[in-house]
Structure of Xyloglucanase:
Amino acid sequence: MRRTHVLTAVLALAAGLLAGGPPALAADAPSPAPAAVSPAADTYTWHNARIDGGGFVPGIVFNRGEPDLAYARTDIGGAYRWQESTHGWIPLLDSVGWDDWGHTGVVSIASDAADPDRVYAAVGTYTNDWDPGNGAVMRSADRGASWRKTDLPFKLGGNMPGRGMGERLAVDPHDNDVLYLGAPSGHGLWRSTDAGVTWTEVASFPNPGNYAEDPADESGYASDNQGVVWVTFDESAGTAGSPTRTVYVGVADKENAVYRSTDAGATWERLAGQPTGYLAHKGVLDAENGHLYLAYSDTGGPYDGGKGRLYRYATATGTWTDISPVAEADTYFGFSGLTVDRQNPGTVMATAYSSWWPDTQIFRSTDSGATWTQAWRYTSYPERENRYVMDVSSSPWLTWGADPAPPEQTPKLGWMTEALEIDPFDPDRMMYGTGATIYGTEELTRWDDDTPFTIRPMVRGLEETAVLDLASPPSGAPLLSALGDIGGFRHTDLTRVPSMMFTGPNFTSTTSLDFAESDPDTVVRVGHADSGPHVAFSTDNGAHWAAGTDPSGVTGGGTVAASADGGRFVWSPEGAGVHHTTGLGASWSASQGIPAGAIVESDREDPETFYGFKSGRFYVSRDGGATFEASSATGLPAGDSVRFKALPGTAGEIWLAGGAAGGPYGLWHSTDFGETFTELPGVEEADTVGFGKAAPDASYPTLFTSARIDGVRGIYRSTDAGASWVRVNDDAHQWGWTGAAITGDPRVFGRVYVATNGRGVIYGDPADTGGGTDPDPSGACEVTYRVTHAWGDGFQAEVRLTNTGTTAWDGWSLTWTFPDGRRIAHLWNGTHTQSGTSVTVRDADWNRTVTPGASVAFGFTASGPAAEATPSAFALGGRTCTVR
């Protein structure tokens, strides 16, 4: 996330979410619970339109017991596991459903060093009423492939102030059935003694915290007590099988920030002599040298922080030493990111997380903080010298298309750098989170030789954008997106990261976009901006843009519509009423007869017709947006949680979705320019509607919606104008809240693009197409199948497929037969279908090309015993492969 307009974006996202609380779940409930009623379903394969990153990563956790096992947490987009074979990330919380959307915000994550198959996530997005549900602790015995969940009696705030502090959740290294959780909002410290199944408050813990970013904030967002913020065990103080005796806990209290227990949590005391006037963002222990390192800031972050210190506490003597790399008077930032090198005790690193300008800073010491070097320094101001080289060729948009004057550089080293970790098994590997990505290096020790090392994005597979609008034109790029915080993208290839977000101008968030149906090269977008116009136009399908002008009073993007022929535009911005223009927005005129804040859309056939909706009333203009009249339609949703679209190819035909609990809430259809609407029976709730290519045996465009039908929430498709619906997602692919936008692809039957609130743009294809064509390889193939982990009722396996022929494959499809009782639960680096014992795994688009001699690997978790699970034969496109 970028610093500017962050709270505005948070409010906008929260405002669009459903009101009302989710149903209570029993403790130890599996997640997700199976639907009681399931409509007819089609099998789809699901992918992200690749952006790679795009949001704040506040936490990275390496497992201390197994190499190459790491997790990342995001503030609104779930959790991920590192996959070493692909140097990418695997999403772990896509099964979180609509009613529990808040559980896509991850406030903390903990990986069990004694049993690396166990991982825990503390989830919940807001502690105020923006999130109607309480928080939960999710636990997995298969590295996040499946989860069970225990609801908590209070809320957690994965997207609240202070979310970069931590980790709040920790597993006891000596007794891994014991976990601690630091709670916000004055709820104190909590403990589980049965591996996260049940939780009780630690009554003896004396301080629930008292710091709030802004106690006067009436929304509850900035005024909440940030609470107990981290837990650290001293592994030198205990024996296997018994709870660790010494535990340190950080509290959001500037006068009493650090506590310790020496009797396994029975009693607690404030550490004597500790610094005051600061919050301890992190507490990291080097048990070998007996040093507890602490990173302090004057605020909770992640955006603010003007002063900070680093301290070292000697656990044996109680001595405090200020080891800050710069004098307090020279700080304009707080410290947060903090890590030690487990292979080289005495090596410690920290970040100046809130140094926005000219860049963040990273510090490194190899003598326990006695002396420091830094990632960059001034030579002769404003010129600077870097120890590192930035290579963002895999995510080129990270330059933001900027050309800053020194001492700023592009790409930046980062901002909001609260997560920083050295791989405990590899001193050369470091990862750190920023407001937009995960950066890392595998050459870290070059730092100490003053040899340049390369920092690259290490974020592939981690998609964390909040999607506000989508468009799929009939020609040109298949996908245009409007995104929070990073503006939006033009995807010409869904499997590749676009070279740049929309620029010229840049919007901090794009709130709405549209194209002319009969002239798809004409595109308009509107959004939030630090300065300058809030509207931009393109005449080449979104490849290049020119800023328009704003009507007086505009403060934000709102919604925008392009006429069918691209000659007129209607804009309903924030801060001003609805306006219309001809040409490309050189001047605007106020529209009459429609209230400010209305949602606007265009007819896709008649260039003179535009539509609007506000507070239960539908409005129609037949003169290019100059004047509107309210239609006679009744029974529509009373509020403004509505999204509607006009059908391409037919003038006056409109589909409208929306509503809220307790009032009209569903899907409506009009064929008379919105004068009347008919509610579709059987659609209990609907929040989005979009159109795609008609089915091969149909003439009406395919409809898509995010809705509840027959009691089941999901993504639905209709090929018969809404007479019947098929659910196309499944319980493993729900992505929390999907109510912002949906569209089909007018060129590919069945393809649907789904907007998520933190998991980026998801697109799906019917599994029988797999998003591509079946391969017909002309050469030989070889398969290596290996079970990597096993537990009582399941196992994990990796498969490597090698092209041993002489011709490259453009797509691949590997099949095998499992013994009875084995079923794949989760697969990465490919897409799979299973019918009985027959399994088919297809490419994941980005790994479809396999040249002669090259290999592609994928992995999966499955239910059933691992013994005798190795298949005896594999086939690639009907050709038998050699098995090694």
